[in-house]
Amino acid sequence: MDYFVLRYPELQNKPPFFRVMWRFFNHPNLYVMPFTETHLSILWSSSWVLLGAIIGVILLGRRGSTDGLDRGIAIVLLGQVIIILSFMGLAQRYTAEIFPFLIFCFIVFLRKSGIALVRMRYAILGLVALSIIINTLSTAFWLGQDKNLPTETRTFWQLGRKKK
Questions:
Q1: pLDDT < 70: residue spans in the chain
Q2: Does the predicted TM-score (pTM) go above 0.85?
Q3: End-to-end alpha-carbon separation of the chain, Å?
Q4: Domain-by-domain residue ranges, the chain?
């Protein structure tokens, strides 16, 4: 469940100010790899979508808020999420398969929440801004460390860090 972990990206005092690395697990029977490829959890990278999706799920569960078609689509997409989360190897690339469900529930939130959306607009905008900053700086760190990229690309993304 590393996709939703509360562990935040490590802060550092030099650009790009965030450090995102593979995490090692000392539970060899639980995972196919001794480490996770999830560098940044959804809580940090897309907190605004997650917040709206949680409220959307609540609206989907309330009688009269949504119709059977909305609930059916949500159940199918939730099935996909359950299948993805059942895979033992945690990888950042599988995060994308969780987003159809989250985005659908977020859209339900946007369509059906009414006054709650108006009251939460600044919180959502703040979470969007926070997500943009965290994603940009974390990606800059990761790109500066990726040995598979050309040297010029890594050098550009190292953003003033000392070269090793």
A1: 1-9, 15-39, 88-94, 159-164
A2: no
A3: 34
A4: 31-157
